[in-house]
Amino acid sequence: MNFIMIQWHHSAGPYDLSNNLCIHEAAGVVITKKEKKVSRAATTFDRLLAAGQRLLTIIHHNEGGANKDLAKFTSQINSLCDKWDR
Fold this sequence. Notes:
The chain has 86 residues and is mainly alpha-helical. The chain has a domain at 54-86. The protein has helices at residues 40-61, 67-84, and strands at 5-6, 15-16, 21-22. A hairpin with an 8-residue loop joins strand 1 (5-6) and strand 2 (15-16).
């Protein structure tokens, strides 16, 4: 029996060209799609938003506090806003 057997680099397996027949079919491999990487800037901005939500929570928890403490807290928040307001 004369036949030519070749194997491609990315083929399923050896192939008999004279009979147009695949001699051995390799088992399939499941390829999972990689998750998209979230950019570093996006995660940093998400942390900033979380910090803002935390600040609002703290503000609500201090409702009814001493006027002197609330005035100082308000002043600190306004100073921070003035520094970062562009």
